[in-house]
Every structure is written in C-alpha cells, then in structure tokens.
Amino acid sequence: MTGLNALAAHLDYTAPAHREGCTAQGWEVDYRMHTDFRESAYSGHSCPLGTEDRTACGHSDEYEALTVRIYCPKCGAATKLEAELPGRPMVYDTTRLGMGVKPRRVGQVWIYQGPPPRLGILCDPPGDPQWHLVARRNAPRLAPEDIVGAIEPATGPRGGAAYTVSYDLTRLSPPAPGERPALVFARHSRLDGQFFPTVTAAARWLDEHTAAPVPTGGKSAT
Fold first, then answer.
1. Which of 108, 127, 150, 197 is 20 to 30 Å from the Cα of 175, by its Cα?
2. pLDDT tens readout for residues 156-169
C-alpha cells in the first residue's frame, strides 16, 4: 500500500458549483461548533467513533456539533455541512495536512508535498514530508489519471538515506458490488534495487520512465 497516504492527501476532493452565469472563482467558508444534546445515546448518533459501537465515543448524550457553511455572496449558491465530532478539531497548516502547498515542477512533472510523519498541532513540528506525489499537471484538484507516482524516503543499499518510487497507479477490483475500487501502485522501484539520492532525482526518473497519462482503469493488481 505504498504511497497511499500521498494519494489520500490530494485525490477525491471537490467543490460546490456556482450558479449558471456566476463569474466568481472562490467561496466564503465558515464553521461553527457548539455543544448539543440528544434525547438518548442511541437517537440519531453519528459520531465517527460510534459507527459500530455507539457507546465507543464516551460522550453519551452530549456531543460537539459542527456546521460548515460554504457560500457565494455573488450568485447565492450555498452548501451546508453538518457533522458530529468526538472533540474539537485540531488546528493545522497546509504543511501538516500535506495538501494546499504549491507544487514544484521538475521536467514535465509536478511534485506535490504529502503528509509528514506526524500530524501535530501548530506548536508540534511535524518533520519533513513523509511522501511526495508526482503528477503530470499543476491543478487545484488532481484526478487519478494525473498521477505519475509517489516518492518516499528509504534506506539505500549501503545504509544511507535515499528515496524510492511507486508508480503504475491501478484500480483494484471492488471488494463487493457497489463498493468503490481501491487505488494502489502496482510497481515499486525498491523491488528492483532502484534508489535515488533526492526527491528531484526520483521525480526525474518517473518523468522519463512512465507513460503519460498513467492508466488507472481496466486493470487488477496481483
């Protein structure tokens, strides 16, 4: 499952749609949290920790309710998201989430930063990124067809610091009818004894040794 953390940081995000004719490019985003109460611990419980065991969250009939509003002042399009959380959300910056950081171009590919080893709060230094995702284009949102591969730190054949790459993004057959197929990388350079001294060198190798775009449909990993 190498490189999946980098994929999760950049794929499958979307945005609401503006109304027809609206020329605005962005959105106003606000969120509100407040303590709410349910009639009983089993009435409408939607805490992520209580998906299988409704008592696992431990907050019984009291919970933190989260409301996120996304709206356009120009055309009036709006989306409201509501969730129940086991605690207050932690405050991050983009480097800790591994998303929202401007990608860096190397040759004909772009290097996107992935999540670091630790997802700490702002006062907790997370360290260097654990993963880097390599794509064929610079875009706010990537699709599987854009992905060239992933780069991760490794120990080289002589025990020194190095990097390896994973590539050939493949869709596994869904585990059950109606379920979403998982994305995995089918090939890994470390299995061929291929290591790179830097992230840039690894990205250049991917640029030169992978087709564009990388196919993701109609294949099954073995």
1. 150
2. 888 888 999 999 98
Angle at 124 between CA 121 and CA 127, to 5 degrees: 110
Q: Is 3 exposed, middle or buried (0-12, 13-18, 19+ CB in 10 A)?
A: buried
How far lies 141's CA from each of 75, 112, 162, in Å?
23, 11, 29
The answer to whether the predicted template modeling score (pTM) of the entire model surpasses 0.85 is no
Alpha carbons 61 and 122: distance in angstroms, whole number: 31
β-strands 132-135, 109-113 pairing: antiparallel
- Chain centroid to Cα 45, Å, comes to 26
For residue 54, how many C-alpha atoms fall within 13 Å in the half-sphere facing its CB? 11
- Give the span between the Cα atoms of 145 and 5, in whole angstroms: 17
| Higher per-residue confidence, 222 vs 119 | 119
β 161-171/132-135 pair status: unpaired
Residue spans of beta strands (DSSP E) within 101-218: 104-106, 109-113, 132-135, 147-155, 161-171, 183-188
